[in-house]
Fold:
Amino acid sequence: MRTHVLFSLLALSTLATAQFTSGFETWNDTLPEGWGGQKTNIGLINIEQVSLNPHGGVFAVRLMNDTVTNKRLTTQPSQLDSGTTYLYNFWVRGHGEVHVSMCDERSAPGGIATYSTYVVIADDVVWQPITASILCTHSSAIGEFIIGVRNTSGPEHLVIDDVNITDGSSDIVGTDAFDALNVFPNPATDVLNIELGWVTGRTYYELTDALGRITSSGIISSDRARIDTRSYAPGIYTLGLRGTKGLKYLQVLVK
Structure:
């Protein structure tokens, strides 16, 4: 069974200074709000609003490009800071290849950074999380974040939702950062306990099922939390934690 993990758009923004967030809920004619920067080169006819099976909210966006040439959808201009590593988190389903980049006016063709590695998506129904990072090398007041696609195929092509782009520098932590974490019992039946082993700051938790659907989420402001699992269907779930210790994902079995 495939498991998926990624934090929701709203919850992530409570823990980090979000550079850009988009759930594709608001559209200006043929474009989702906040998108369609100068570096966008995918045609408007290849951008569609999707209301069936969004990851969150009511709408998502479909990008269609069945050629081998990368086509990009970019954000409206915003401030990008040199030396900052920007962390991209979003969800994708459909068939095609997707990757990310940024335009920060660097001395490269089009001022665009080297793209992240393409991720191949091959499921029209199940949402897959994408996480990538791009280092900004040139401060720019008119920078644009980029999502690029190629080799998409119908009927879904690539459907994207819940994009969250933050300063990811604080998420680079040592492997021992979560040594004090204790999640029990596992397998869980009636309740799942989360004991952090620290109290510094706030830690956001999110439990998702095998289809990427959020079953429980919240803020841990002390050092522990309890999740009632009595109504959960048996199966493998993924627990995600984000806070001052960085990011942590682990699998939980509910019986």
